[in-house]
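Fill-in record for Crossover junction endodeoxyribonuclease RuvC.
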Amino acid sequence: MVRILGIDPGLRFTGWGIIDAQGNRLSYVAGGVLATDSKTAVPERLCVLSDGLEKLIEQYTPDEAAVEETYVNQNGTATLKLGYARGVALLIPAKRSLCVIEYGAKTVKRAVVGTGAATKDQVTMMVKRILPTAVIQKADAADALAIAICHAHHRTSLNSIALGKVMA
């Protein structure tokens, strides 16, 4: 069994979700959102995200982490702030020696819904279907669980590739 932490980074809301994967069987462990106050300075907000992720890793002891890649939108400032949050989301699990893998939004949607053009509602609906006991309070938490599910589906092929390199 492997415990996976999925992270949907954002400076205002960072979604997180934890699942256990045993072969093809997935089970919900926990999920939620780390929220920061938009009136607070960016460095303080990053500290809130960092501290929150540290506590989650300590509490749930995941084996691996998956983080959504940055998409670039027309608002450069928003993209930059998302990059700050992504940096924290990548750094904290890596500092705890977790394997950290990144997935693009379309890859996550394809893995969970079957199409890279899925809506947020479709992603949430499929996460609830795949993890029927999941408690989802915000779309960011559903997205984080979707990222964890995506990693659970892809990790078998990633491990096969790694094993092939080791055996070669």
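KEY FINDING: The chain is about 50% helix and 25% strand.
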